[in-house]
Specification:
- The protein is of the alpha+beta class.
- Helix content is about 20%, strand content about 60%.
- The chain has a four-stranded antiparallel β-sheet with strand order 1-4-3-2.
- The two termini are about 15 Å apart.
């Protein structure tokens, strides 16, 4: 969300907004232990009028998916 807000409003626009997450439909399919490294990938589904929805996955370094699903939220001015 922050990246998309920056594309639309620039860096100053990001400083004036905060992202509020209002919905998450995710499946936790693994365990992340202290010291594990994870990679988070997010693909935009839509972004309109500061509202967004995205597909998200989180994988361990060995390729094991530990989280997948969708997240939604809204960017609001501070």
């Amino acid at each position: 969300c922050i990246y998309v807000i920056a594309l639309e409003h620039g860096v100053e626009g990001v400083k004036k907004r905060v992202a509020l997450f209002c919905d998450a439909n995710v499946d936790f399919t693994g365990i992340v232990k202290p010291g594990d490294r994870v990679t988070t990938s997010v693909k935009k589904i839509f972004y309109r009028r500061n509202k967004f929805r995205a597909e998200a996955t989180m994988t361990l370094d060995d390729g094991t998916v530990v989280l997948s699903g969708t997240i939604s939220g809204v960017g609001v001015e501070r």
